[in-house]
Amino acid sequence: MTAMPGTAAADSIPDSARAREVAARVRPALEHGLAARHLRYGAPVFIRIFKREAELELWLRGDDGTFVLFRKYPICKFSGDLGPKLHEGDNQAPEGFYPVAARQLNPLSRYHLAFNLGYPNEYDRAHGRSGSALMVHGDCVSIGCYAMGDAGIEEIYTLAAAALRAGQSAFDVHVFPFRPTDATLAASAGSPWHAFWQELAPAHALFERDRVPPRISVKDGHYRLASAGTAR
Predict the structure, then answer these.
(1) Candidates 3.30.530.20, 3.50.50.60, 3.30.420.10, 2.40.440.10; CATH matching 10-226
(2) What are phi and psi of 208, to 5 degrees?
């Protein structure tokens, strides 16, 4: 479930002339912004998505091992409502926890640049959910995906590819319906997805506390979490 330590061979990273042109163009400004936050190009990345807020957060790991928020990007478009994707063709965008490996990058997407979330994950499959090709991509159209606009995906994709090329085996993407605070969860008590959202909330709380993505597995159809520095 969670991206585990490892090495992604540089020659296994999908590539294209488009991705190379984008990286060459946006890298100087990215490196300037990273340096201002004491971060480096190629550092491991972590992504959080919040549907209601229509926001994607891009975090990078600092020298002390904790993650630092680099930038927040507005989501140009996502389809469906709050709640998880259930089946192929329902036009819902997924919610949950998704590790993204190099093979899931698409530098030739018809939506500029993209990466596949890997839906359905183990949890989704345990609950009989179906679907395919659920992406974070450019442009501003969505059929179950998160469309970031071309300028947004250029930065997100470039930093994700750089992290994978530098040795991150996969990066985690955590997708929430909203920022899961006590107040927002209480307000959602009448939703049929309240129990599911309560199951997502501890991952948000652990990251807020530790600034390191928790380790996540699936057992008996439920997410199981452990702090990154502890034994599971």
Answers:
(1) 2.40.440.10
(2) -60, -35
